[in-house]
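Write out the 3D structure for:
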Amino acid sequence: MPERPPIGVIGVGWVGLVTASCFAELGHHVWCRDIDAAKIDSLKSGHVPIYEPGLEDLVTRNSERLHFELEVAPLMEHARLLFVCVDTPPTYSGDADLSRVEAVIEELPSSAEHAIVMKSTVPVGTGANLRRRLGELGKADLGYASNPEFLKEGSAVGDFMHPDRVVVGSDTASPWAADAVAKLYEELPGPVVRTDVASAEMIKLASNAFLATKISFINEIANVCEEVGADVKEVAAGMGLDPRIGDKFLNAGVGFGGSCFPKDVSALKQLAGNSGYHFQLLTAVIEVNELQKRRVVSKLKKHLGSLVGKRIGLLGLAFKPNTDDMREASSVVLAARLQGEGAIVQAYDPVAEERAGELLTGVAMCDSALDAVEGVDAAVIVTEWPEFAELDLAEVKRRMANPVIVDGRNLLGADEVRRAGFVYEGIGRT
């Protein structure tokens, strides 16, 4: 393998660790920095504190190329490009909290040999603001480029190695930085989209907002289907055959969650508002998503009446399968609403139990899906883990006190479940 230039990664969370590990797989030595000493010690010992399919194998296979540090000095010594992968969570106002990004800018020394590469999702205009701040700090010689990530939790390694596109935003003060970033991706499939920094920042936010809009749209269609007797799965299948629409993100359910869609939709809406424009469509997308998480409660009350003292089993807690991410997970809202109605809640998730336990007060965590339905008055599929589709329905029914299933992801075959003796409620299905 030819010699590859070393790379620096600042922030070794989910995006940072995937980015670092994949670049290491491509042959680069990657110097990773994080201020969390426990995380760095864990990674140095070979333990990956994040659940992402294929990531642990990647870290292990490339252990000689991955270097984990608590200080930024080793990155400055070894790498020219410094990928910033720190969190930018929403504030109470809906704006992105850029304090971690700003801390990185404050800490980096002045150097004409180095460039900041922004992988963190930031509001449009952040690059220009950071360029001004660098000037104020006497660090105008630092290069800058935007390189937003488009990784999906549960398939992030494959997304990095086989991207549908790579976006690189160029700073006019240091075009060499964007050239160097684009060169890193030359051997990967997918086009490299070269643009200005502001457009690169907007591409990321607009992409996630559009996908979230598709999800809220099909959930609205599902709700109408329930009123008129149509089946949203058949409707979505027919819609998806139109190439102008496509079949992706047309799965009705209990709403979207995770670290990207809710945050990025809110950030784009807030950005528009701060600019004097009311983004009405995104206001509706957010409202629909929040209401969708609560519709399950109405479905349960339809069959059980009052939920006071009723035992409800939740199958799946993570916001999607193949991840342990609980950020903005529908299960958190649903569990709280059920408890608010007086229900007793027990739950199971194949990998997210530890993280879920930190958020779901008073929810009994079970060791298996069958344990989660033991003695319940109704079971709710919240996350579409494949193992739930393979459950022995006869055994599930034997264990339940009352055979009611609310399929919040339309994972099961409605006719099959009903033939097995259950009351079945899907999303947008009759």
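The first helix runs from residue 14 to 25.
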